[in-house]
Model the fold of this input.
Amino acid sequence: MPLVAGVDTSTQSCKVVVCDAESGELVRSGAAAHPDGTEVHPDAWWEAFQQASAAAGGLDDVEAIAVGGQQHGMVCLDEQGEVVRPALLWNDTRSAQSALDLIDELGGPQAWVDATGLVLVASFTVTKLRWLAQHEPENAARTAAVCLPHDWLTWKLSGAASLDTLVTDRGDASGTGYWSPTTGEYRRDLLELGLGHDAILPRVLGPSEVAGRTPAGQLLGPGTGDNAASALGLGAVAGDVIVSIGTSGVACAVAERPVGDVSGAVAGFADATGRFLPLVATMNAARVLASAERILGVDHDEFSDLALSAPAGSGGMVLVPYLEGERTPNRPDATGALHGMRLETTTPAYLARASVEGMLCGLADAVDAVRALGTPVERIILVGGAARSRAVREIASAVLGLPVSVPQPGEYVARGAARQAAWVLSGSAEAPQWPLADVVETKVEPTPAVRQRYAEVREMTAKRP
Done:
């Protein structure tokens, strides 16, 4: 039974899973925390990887390893391969003005969509490089190579022989702001626009191309970004949309063609299979439900029961869930709004139902944004902590008007990386089939009136002074 390992070097922690290369069955796992903050020295990721690997029983018996990781983070290396400064993570927003400046300098949002499939926001690597050039010019001048968190960890696993051995994949490269998913090539002019000079960039590998070997001789996969790894771990195919309900919300779909959205709502990423992964992120997801539970003084199960005891549409009461502003649609200064209350709806059950419906309508807007670019949407794969709620599963199917599949909770980024490692090990043209066990399928009658009412209130509240 050959074994493979998948690594998820995420914002908060490192997770390592060891799986059977043929079946995908989880054999053992381990985890270790990353430091808090929006800038982290990459050495902390290496230390956490070693701790997580030890917690997983070690990796001496695995034959291949691949790394999935947080996207966009800026890792700058000097000519000797030393880290120039702590990495700026995806959620570091100090480069927000840099994003606006770069958009203008290239000629507006359409120019960036044409070049990279993206409209720049502070998350993307090229904006962080511009910030570095403006605010730390000595560090920018020292930067001989730029890579991403998963690239760096793969490089360390390979022995970090030289900068020329840095590698990445399409999925993670597509979130930098200087790689084109249409041509499959770097846009070095955009790298220079950000950093101020050219630099070594990781070689972009194919989905199952060997990235090298560890000093112990284990094969290394190219790795990928976290969303692409999750899609691979879930076995998503064309027609599937993954809706993740965690601290933030994500809707992403496997697509056969690259997409570009000049509004910036949909990021035109690539995936880990040679296809594409248009993605929408929202700011308001599981914490909307947690806030309602706190108001009502109930736990998750009680909240779910309350929501299901009220009728669809919550008697006309609508929660627009922009409790932290919103990214999609782009309303950073918006606030939440509860509209349409009547005496008979001022009960815990109606508030619970309105909270679930409002949160899911926001994610349905994200799914619509993906669909509007021509990507087929046939099934929803629902993941994240909130997917454990029966109310969320049933109301999601009703609001989205589609069947909802909920796999068992698991480390799907790490599983996707492990599946890629098994793919590299097999040398096959396609990734191994790793079926998901114990998937809960939910299909209920659609409730289009809920979306219609939500849209009315969403636009009405957007016009408030």
The chain has 15 helices and 24 strands. The chain has a mean pLDDT of 95.
